[in-house]
Write a structure and sequence with these properties.
Number of helices: 7
Distance between the termini: 61 Å
Structural class: alpha+beta
Number of strands: 10
Length: 365
């Protein structure tokens, strides 16, 4: 059985092609023409090409592109749905024993920076299903080689750095594979921003950033990984000291999001994932923008927190960690989804005094 190529008109993947005929690996449904494109198609075909030792010339030394030709499949490969891929059971690492540190000299944020914490009410499965095209995309049959299951390394991390590496090897790999299928090239890339003596943002350790493609270094999402004993959503309802530690980690994330002028972020532990969004001034896109025509101005110290997602949660009718991360990355596309805010906020420089744009008082949570 030979698979034929179909041009895609979906807004979630690139429609550009070379004049060479490239067979399509993706089954097209009656309601959608979403296809695997760009580097996703090239990487899958290239892996098959290497495994079968096809009788073609070696590809050029430059990076893979959609112009590369590989032998056709003799028969259709096994398929899976992206929804199943993102909601399959996931392994959970063991708890990390936190290291005691009393030094705060490197911190440029403080727990009292967080003034207001609101629930992110529309971060739920029904919102994802209501976005035009997402239902068809999640239920589309995709060749299994395009959505590989990441290997699991070191389920017993000993430090925060090892825990971050664990999530990078598994969750970031899984989310990036799903984004490549959904958006083609370019697409958001979830990666680790490693510690560097020249990078002041990493003085407290590495963290996740999401950039758009390989040529856009701006972070559109920032993510922190903390041991469960250092931060978890339950600390909000505990004693004063636990609440201070709860706010301290939120202020760390809040500081990084403002430095990168991005609206979205997340906190991840061994047990749960909490997605975060900056609150913005209601009229920020009109009269209170720092520069005319720029993005809305964030409210200093105000965050929206989505309900905590347990990493052990699985099933197509549940919000899982991989599905939550995939959805949040779909919100930072160049063209925002309908009725969903874009990724960029306008913090401005020190002279803009955006830290003074805050809501009076502290909410009584």
């Amino acid at each position: 059985m030979m698979l034929s190529r179909t041009r895609s008109s979906s807004p979630y993947c690139s429609s550009s092609r070379s004049s060479s005929a490239v067979p399509d690996l993706c089954h097209n449904s009656a309601n959608s023409h979403i296809a695997i494109t760009g580097p996703a198609l090239a990487s899958v075909r290239y892996n098959q090409y290497q495994e079968k030792n096809a009788m073609h010339e070696a590809p050029p030394s430059s990076k893979l592109s959609m112009d590369l030709l590989f032998e056709d499949y003799a028969e259709a490969p096994p398929t899976t749905r992206m929804l199943d891929y993102l909601t399959d059971p996931m392994p959970c690492p063991r708890l990390v024993r936190p290291m005691v540190s009393t030094s705060r000299t490197a911190e440029t944020h403080f727990w009292w920076d967080i003034r207001t914490v609101h629930p992110w009410r529309d971060f739920k499965l029904s919102t994802i299903n209501a976005i035009v095209g997402f239902q068809e995309l999640l239920h589309l049959s995709i060749p299994s080689p395009a959505l590989p299951e990441p290997p699991v390394f070191n389920k017993c991390p000993q430090t925060s750095a090892e825990l971050l590496r664990y999530h990078a090897n598994y969750h970031a790999t899984k989310v990036n594979a799903a984004l490549k299928v959904a958006l083609g090239n370019p697409q958001p890339i979830m990666q680790v921003r490693h510690s560097s003596s020249t990078d002041p943002d990493t003085r407290l350790g590495p963290f996740f950033t999401t950039t758009y493609g390989k040529h856009d270094a701006r972070a559109r999402i920032v993510g922190l990984v903390k041991p469960y004993e250092v931060w978890n959503s339950g600390m909000r309802n505990q004693g004063p000291q636990a609440r201070i530690e709860y706010l301290r980690s939120l202020s760390h994330l809040h500081s990084l999001m403002r430095k990168n002028s991005c609206r979205y972020g997340f906190l991840m532990t061994e047990i749960e994932l909490v997605c975060v969004r900056l609150c913005v001034c209601p009229d920020g896109s009109d009269g209170t923008a720092v520069n005319a025509g720029s993005a809305p101005v964030p409210v200093f110290g105000a965050l929206e927190l989505a309900p905590a997602v347990q990493l052990r949660t699985s099933g197509p009718s549940e919000m899982t960690a991989a599905l939550a991360l995939w959805y949040m990355h779909m919100l930072v596309k160049d063209v925002p989804n309908p009725e969903q805010p874009g990724w960029r906020v306008d913090v401005g420089g020190p002279a803009a005094l955006t830290r003074q744009r805050c809501w009076s008082g502290i909410n009584g949570w």
